[in-house]
Amino acid sequence: MSNATEAELSGEERLIARYFRPLATHPAALGLMDDAAMLVPPAGCDLVLKTDGLIGGVHFFPDDPADAVAKKALRVNLSDLAAKGARPIGFLLALALPQEIKPAWLEAFARGLGEDAEVFDCPLLGGDTDRTPGPISVSIAALGSVSHGKMIRRSGARPGDRVVVTGTIGDAALGLLLRRDSIMAERWGLKRGHQEDLKARYLLPQPRNAIIDALHRYATAAMDVSDGLVGDLSKLCRASCVAAEINVASVPLSDAAHAASAKQSALVETILTGGDDYEIIATLPADAVEAFRQAVLAAHIQVTEIGAIVAGEGAARFLDQNGKILHFARPSFSHF
Question: Is 324 within a domain?
Fold first, then answer.
């Protein structure tokens, strides 16, 4: 900190010094004493840039814990870096706060952000703080690095590749429904533990950065599942100028999602299109699937083969157990 006294600092300077300067440990952050960071990219690497934001009342609930909001804001960006095969370098934070924000909220937010910055080795490099008459807004720009020319794109899938997905699908979308209407738990016959599991998946995603090496070794294309499996796989297909055929029965579900969909079969659409999964879809040559599976399991992450890439024009077809194509009213989450 400079030689300025506390009284000589503006309110914004005091906020940054108290809550965020302790997180800016990377030399590139310049101690948050300048109005920009200065970063030297790792030798022989390309920079991978990603920005994603959270808006109160849209991406999180007003009563969500502040530390979880901070972690979610960082993790949704880390998920995209993981899908590109990029290792985190650091991030920039733009935070807009309403007048009535309490110091306790900021303390918890900074604590959660600092914890995840350390866990994922992704330090704060700089950013901006603003006042807003609206809800809290948290926008993060994450920077990653990947060996020159080795970023995993959406456009590499080829006919004959197999489609795999990490983790389980649909939990966060179901968790959101439970947060909006707790009566759903009774309709679905969910045990308390299952309810909490689904809510937790919505509140706090688990980015798959631990499988970056396996993706580099085996994947021909990849992206993370943020707007729903149906819509996001279709985006990958369009980028690769191919089609996909997916067996819905093969899509991995948690015990909680199995229990809910067994009670209300129409939930399959929510599960497949709802989004906020932050799992990774990848395409692999057929002879690489087992090796990829073993590599991912070594990172204690589940991976499931759900279908194949075929020749076509950018469509992802989801087939029921009778081979019938399912049609969805809203194939992908979209803000617009």
Answer: no
Tell me the C-alpha distance between 65 and 279, whole Å. 23
Q: Is 46 exposed, middle or buried (0-12, 13-18, 19+ CB in 10 A)?
A: middle
Q: Does any domain span residue 124?
A: yes
User: Could you tell me the pLDDT band of residue 334, with boundaries at 50, 70 and 90?
Assistant: low
Do 143 and 159 fall into the same domain? no
What is the largest distance, in Å, between two alpha-carbon atoms of the chain? Answer: 73
pLDDT for 1 equals 41
Report phi then psi at 63, rounded to 5. -95, 5
Closest CA to 156 of 47, 46, 236: 236
| Sign of the four-CA dihedral 287, 314, 231, 227 | positive
What pLDDT is attached to residue 37? 86
Own/partner pairs, 30-35, CB within 8 angstroms, 24+ separation: 30/126, 32/126, 33/2
Q: How far apart are CA 75 and CA 70, in angstroms?
A: 9
DSSP state of 305: E
Q: Which residues pair with 244 in a beta bridge?
A: 309, 316
Q: Which residues lie below 8 Å from residue 13, measured CB to CB, with a gap of 6+? A: none
Looking at residue 151, its amino acid is M
pTM, to two decimals: 0.91
Place of tokens 């990219």: 41
CA distance 278 to 92: 21
Using DSSP, state whether 9 is helix, strand or coil. Answer: coil
Instruction: Read off the pLDDT of residues 158-169 as tens digits, 9 standing for 90 and up.
Output: 999 999 999 999
Q: The domain that contains 307 carries what CATH number?
A: 3.90.650.10
Burial class (CB in 10 A: 0-12, 13-18, 19+), 7: exposed
Question: Domain check: are 36 and 159 in the same one?
Answer: no
Give the tokens for residue 29.
């952050």
Give me 187's structure tokens.
């309709």
Phi then psi dihedrals of residue 86, to 5 deg = -100, 140
